[in-house]
Amino acid sequence: MTNSRESRRIRPIALAGAWACGLFAVALSVSTCAYVWTRPFPELVAPLGFHSVGHAGDWQIVGVRALACGPTLAAAAALLAAVAGFRAIAAGRYFGETTTRSLIRLSILCAAAIVVSVATPPASSILMSMGGSEGHVVLSVGSGHGIALVFTLTVYLLAWLLREAARIERENNEIV
Amino acid sequence: MPIVVDLAVIMAQRRVRSKDLAAFVGITQSNLSLLKNGRVRGVRFETLSKICQRLNCQPGDILRFEPDAEDAPTVNDE
What we know:
The structure holds two protein chains of two kinds. Chain A is mainly alpha-helical. Chain A is built from five helices and no strands. In chain A, helix 3 runs antiparallel to helix 4 and helix 4 (about 95-130) packs antiparallel against helix 5 (about 145-175). The model of chain A has no long low-confidence stretch (mean pLDDT about 85). A two-stranded antiparallel ribbon of chain B has the order 1-2. Chain B has helices at about 5-15, 20-25, 30-35, 45-55, 60; strands at about 5, 65.
């Protein structure tokens, strides 16, 4: 743990980051789930091409609503993973195991959120089709997904570099 | 580790306290204690030279090589 000018400067920023990520994760999860579960079901499946939902069973309705929450919950989990990292940085443990583990979890969960957001519409369509009604499978992959995946990969590489730095620091601490 | 640290012996001979030596060298007392007990991975030349300067000795007085039983040669070269 250091007490340099830079570390004193980064501490409030890291603490603010931790609070922002935590609050945003909770707000995002609650608001999205509330929206998805209170929205009329026909509106939820209309973009998938299902205009008549009278045949849909309860298990399909619950399944589609649960799937719709998936991407947001994955993103919220990524934000919660970042909280631990921000708190470790605020405590001055820059090269600690907590920081690297947090970054690795953040990158993996971000990647999961992207994949889930791409996979949710077709999965919902398939689920709805099981009742015999016709709709269409929507698979939408845009440049935004690609950029987000590159960003995620970059975070993962940074986490790996941080882990190497932590190992070197541990070795350095054993040299007097 | 076949490197044995005799720092405690030299310090006792010179009547130098750990606190004074640590302050002179510029390391913590806990690190000096680890060094005295040989529980470190390495010693910086800078640290070694300061220790030698304060204790008025040579690096060889502090460190010596003592092979383990399994490392000792089993066949004599003629």
